[in-house]
Amino acid sequence: MRPETLVQDHTIYTCVMGSRAFGLATEGSDTDRWGVFLAPTPLFWRLDKPPTHVEGPAEEQFSWELERFCGLALRADPNILECLHSPLVEYADDTGRELLALRGAFLSRRVHDTFTRYAHGQRRRLDADVRTTGAPRWKHAMHLLRLLTSVRDLLRTGTLTIDVGAEREPLLAVKRGEVPWAGVEARMTRLAREAEEAARRSPLPPEPDRRRVEDFLIRVRRASALDAR
Q1: pLDDT at 58 over 90
Q2: Residue 229: predicted pLDDT
Q3: Which listed residue, of 70, 155, 177, 179, carries a Cα 20 to 30 Å from 215's Cα?
């Protein structure tokens, strides 16, 4: 089975991500579509296994196979968790709705490590840009501020909200280069410190609910195998 066919015929969930989901879209912003497909169980009985992810077939489209998606979510991958919490859901079948109902099972205090580790990598790139060219890539600086705010609030409340809401205009001002780099740096440092403080008393559990997710995967795989008989 061609990878494109898996996406076209076996998608269980799709959403819009990127600036449109974050509430930061401007004229000309791309429309990024991310999704999850469920490879039929009999494909795993072959020597050549189905792909863990597929790019396309449409432009700006990317999909993960359900098991790979759940594994990354259990490890608190920032992109995957944000995909699960997109406010712009375009499609979800019965299995996709079950996946969305599991969103809370993937959340844990691990997000502090994964989100901040990702943020540190982005910060190093911004600092390198400043040293090399005298200025950061302002769009990347904006998204780093958004990410740091998101994880701080997640750790404080136990809820992941990716639309920036009232922070839209201040963040777009950063993207336009209207905020001095020193001010952006100070805000990044403050948000990182607040996230660390929030992690110490977060309502999130220490670990995700792996058993609940595994039970879901087993049930879905079994149903797929029975449908193929």
Answers
A1: no
A2: 57
A3: 155
Q: How far apart are CA 37 and CA 41, in angstroms?
A: 12
User: What is d(CA 201, CA 97) in angstroms, rounded to the nearest whole number?
Assistant: 31
Residue appearing with tokens 């691990």: 110
- Maximum alpha-carbon separation in the chain: 63
Q: Are 221 and 41 in contact (CB under 8 A)?
A: yes
pLDDT for 51 beyond 60: yes
Segments in 158-229 forming alpha helices (H): 168-175, 181-200, 210-227
Closest to 86 in 3D by CA, of 156, 134, 21, 179: 21
Q: Which of 6, 19, 1 is nearest to 139 (CA)?
A: 19
Q: Which residues contact 167 (CB under 8 A, 6 or more apart)?
A: 146, 149
Answer whether 106's CB lies under 8 Å from 213's CB: yes
Query: pLDDT tens digits for 119-140?
Result: 999 999 999 999 999 899 999 9
Determine how β-strand 32-37 pairs with β-strand 61-65.
parallel
What is the residue extent of each domain of the chain?
3-103+209-227, 110-200
* Sheet with 32-37, side-by-side order of all strands: 53-55, 61-65, 32-37, 11-17, 89-92
